[in-house]
Each structure stands twice: as structure tokens, then as C-alpha cells.
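Could you help me review a protein record that somebody else here produced? This is what I was given.
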Amino acid sequence: MKPLKPLPIKKAPKQEREKKILIGLVAYYLKSGKAVGSDTLKEAGFDDVSSATIRNYFVRLEEEGYLHQAHTSGGRVPTDKAFRFYADHILDDLNDSKRVKTSTPKRVPQFDEELAEIKEVVLYLQQITESVSQLSGLATFISSPRFDQDFVVDIKLVSFDQGRYLSALMTNFGLIHTELLHSPKKLSAHSLRRLEAYFRSRLRSGELLAEELDSDELEIAHRFYQESMARYLVSYSNFTEEDIYTTGMSKLLRYPEFQDATSLTSSLSLFENHTALRLLIRECIKAGKIKYWIGSDLFSHLSSPLNCAVVSAPYSIGTRVVGALGLLGPMRMPYADLFSLLDEACEAISKNLTRSLYKYKITFRTPAAHVKEFETQKRLLLPQKG
């Protein structure tokens, strides 16, 4: 009987090896920020592949639009198409880890802190956004539904010049609503404090402190109160767009990709364009999963060239997706870390909001939903008696 011949070990298909080379190159570039040569990549974990073979893969990947070579003798850098391929690979790994019930170690304990009071709902969302911005080093934004059973609890006034004043309304849940008001008379700091006391008396006890104001101050106080509350109620009842909170814009200045004035201004203009951010958020909410937009993906949202990327993850209340948390930064960003961070943060937001809204019996609505609280809030606009 002839001895059995050992079965030959099949090499990975060429396309699969090419895919691994591309993923390895992008991963290396994300860490170094430098063009990657064949010898460099070989030393970075591909010692079983010759430099000549790696160069052949580079040529093919460049022809397919995944790589770019600035100089004939230089290394390659990934294009936005390569970043998308890499991001898809990372998302597949993240989803696989969820299916086998493994997860990234928790890095942010405050994400899971229970809300002690219902007034912390909006503040909690803002604090998580600040934490994510600090951890990621990127500009961060979040959208929020409108929470019902929320009431104005204080009004502050700030003087700008002879006739203009900023009215800042703060609600029980932590929302801040501002309006610019005008007065024919210059008000002293002492008068402003008396007006604020008058506002608080109307908001809380209903016992007006009119006797502490002179006739001019009383007229201005009444008009300022009515104007501020009327504008707030219109904004509150006409909820056609998601509330957006942004932070961390200055963090973009640290990246070499944004040292160029054109790249910086175009990226900042996207971050300040809440209409464009809302469109991205709605795509994420509709998909119900982590979404990304890299380079040219953003052309439909802003016409100027964009050398940046946006990643976003949705969060839910109960089983309903109601908002999204997102990051804006350079295309060369650590996608694996950021996807895990967003996933962890949104999981905590979903759990805490669901638990807190159930605990405090708070309802919410998304844009264009039915307004439930208008009649209740309208009592604050009733003219003073007597």
C-alpha cells in the first residue's frame, strides 16, 4: 500500500490577500500618518509576503482607486475609498463581536450613571457629548427629541449696549433658549436684577413683585416677559427640527489635515451647518445603526471640498430610535476605537433615557409630532390680574 501523500495547504485566494494588504496599509497609515512603502508594510506584520508581491498588490489597488502615490518612488496613502473599505471591515468585526456577546471593555463609567433627577435629562445628553469629545479628541454633536412636561424655571437678562438685552430662558430639564430684546431705555444692573425677580415671581408663585418696580421698569418687565415667553412657546410648539448640541470644534485645530485654511473652514462650516448635520443624523436614525461619511460622501451635504469624515450612532428610548451621537474629524481617524466609543455611549444613553423617562413618567416627541403641552404652557402667558 502506497503511503498517502500529504494534502497541499491551499493558499488564501489572491483577492483575500489583497484585501488583507489593504486593511494592513490603512491601519498602519492611521497610526503613522505617513505614506506606506512595501518594505514598511512587510515589517509591520506581512513578513510572509515578499516586498515585490506587496508592490504588485499596491499597483492593483492603485488602479482600483484605493491607493494614491504622490511620488513615483514614494509609498502609498489610502484614498477615501480605502477608508470606506476599512470602516466597513471594522463595522463587520464590531457586529460579529456583538453576535457572540463579547464587547469592548467599558472605558467611561459615567455613561452608566443613573439620572438622579429628571431635570438632568438634557444636561445628561450634553455631558455625554462633552465626555465623548474629550475621549475622542474630535468635534462632537448630538440630536435630541423634545421632552414634554418641561417648564421654564428661570429667565436671565444680559445687557449688551444702550438698548439691546439678551433674554436667556432655562427649563426644568436644562434647555437654554435665548432671544435678543430691545428697550428704549437703558437699564442699570440693579434694574435688571429687579426685572429678573419679577420674572421669577411670575414663573413660580404667581405673586407679582410689581410694587418693587417703577412704572417704566414695570412696563419693560411685562413686555420682556411676554416677548420671551411668546417666542419660546412658538419654538416649543413648532418642533419641526431636532434639537442639536455641538462641542469640541477647537479640537480640530490639532490635526495636520486641518492646518490648511481651506480644509479647516470647509470642515468647520459643515459642523456649524445644523441643517446638514440634521440630514446626516436622519440618515443614521433611518438606518438604525452606525453610519459614516468619508470625504466625497459629504459632497451632497456641503458643496465645498471636504477632507474630513463624520461617524454617527443612533440611540433609542424603549424600542424607538429617537436621536444620534456623532463625531467629525479628519479622514485619518481611529475608526475601530471611535465605533466602539459611540456604540458604548449610545447604549448607555438608550438605557438611561428609557429608565428615567419611565421612572418620571415623561413623554417625548420627535419633529412634527403632536404638541401635547401647549395648553399647559399657555398659562404662563396669561395677563397679570389687577
Observations:
- The domain at 87-145+242-365 is CATH 3.30.450.40 (Beta-Lactamase).
- The longest helix spans residues 335-360.
- Residues 1-11, 101-105, 369-380 have pLDDT under 50 and may be disordered.
